[in-house]
Specification:
The chain contains 7 helices and 14 strands. The chain has helices spanning 50-60, 73-88, 140-146, 152-155, 194-197, 202-211, 215-228, and strands spanning 4-7, 11-20, 30-35, 38-45, 96-97, 99-107, 110-118, 122-127, 130-133, 168-169, 172-173, 177-182, 188-192, 235-245. A hairpin with a 2-residue loop joins β3 and β4 (38-45). α1 (50-60) runs antiparallel to α2 (73-88) and α6 packs antiparallel against α7. This is Protein phosphatase 2C domain-containing protein.
Length: 270
């Protein structure tokens, strides 16, 4: 598993990412973008390659954000609008996708994660040894959990666990959740499709993320465990570490950068 690094006067990150078709599917409809400063996962749906096209289209809208500078939140909002327009304008009414993850942005008062979520893929934050799910699933079982009708553990086995209530495309127009949270040193983000979170509970995710300092080793272990558990769906995971943050982002220099772009395949290779 490869690990990538970005050094900048404002922020220093390490990351690794993986996608795999899983043990039961013939086609990988997951896609991810792990190219600084964008870290997103999209889980397509629709079958017959429609989901693959939808997830790819959704992420292609963020390619203009790749580069050496950090976008302002308004540029991320524009990319998000283009993402919806690309999928909805594809002409394939059955195609849809989830979208979750974070983009590093610069505002007038510091460096922030611009977090986005639509559907049931997930974004987690490990900070001070505690794993917290930042995103809220847009799903039938999540609504049942909030209504007190099922427990979180029972929801993992519920027959409606894969029914989502929001998506990009899929015959519906639904808004994403978006919010800002500060980028801080020693944070670790996990962005994943439900092919990972559906196989491994939060306790296992936390244990792996705490025990593997390297993002590459963490993603490799997460994939190994998901495959060992049966990997009934496509599996995708992006792990991002914040090694340093300088909130005074004035006078950035575009020199001495170790920058690798890594928008990885849609075809399911590990």
């Amino acid at each position: 598993m490869r690990e990538f690094r970005y050094h900048h006067d404002a922020v220093s990150l390490r990351w690794s990412a993986v996608t795999h078709v899983g043990m039961r599917r013939q086609l990988n409809e997951d896609s991810f973008d792990a190219s600084f400063p964008v870290f997103l996962v999209a889980d397509g749906m629709g079958g017959h390659a429609a989901g693959d096209r939808a997830s790819t289209l959704a992420l292609s809208a963020f390619e203009r954000l790749h580069g050496r500078s950090l976008p302002e939140p308004c540029r991320v909002e524009t990319a998000l609008e283009r993402s919806f327009a690309a999928v909805l304008g594809s002409g394939d009414t059955g195609a849809g996708t989830t979208l979750t993850g974070a983009i590093v942005t610069s505002t007038g008062d510091g460096i922030y994660w611009y977090l986005v979520n639509v559907g049931d893929s997930r974004t987690y934050l490990l900070q001070d040894g505690v794993l917290r799910q930042l995103s809220v699933d847009h799903s039938v079982v999540q609504e049942m959990i909030e209504a007190g009708e099922v427990t979180r553990e029972d929801a993992r086995r519920h027959p409606l666990r894969n029914v989502i209530t929001r998506s990009i495309g899929g015959g519906q127009v639904t808004p994403p959740d978006t919010w800002l949270t500060p980028v801080q040193r020693n944070q670790r983000l996990l962005v994943c499709s439900d092919g990972l979170s559906g196989e491994l509970d939060d306790e296992v995710l936390a244990r792996v993320l705490r025990s593997h300092p390297s993002p590459a080793h963490a993603t490799a272990e997460l994939l190994r465990l998901a495959l060992a558990a049966g990997a009934r769906d496509n599996v995708s995971a992006v792990v991002v570490d914040v090694d340093a943050v300088d909130q005074d982002d004035t006078g950035w220099q575009d020199t001495d950068l170790d920058l690798v772009f890594d928008t990885v395949p849609r075809g399911g290779r590990p």
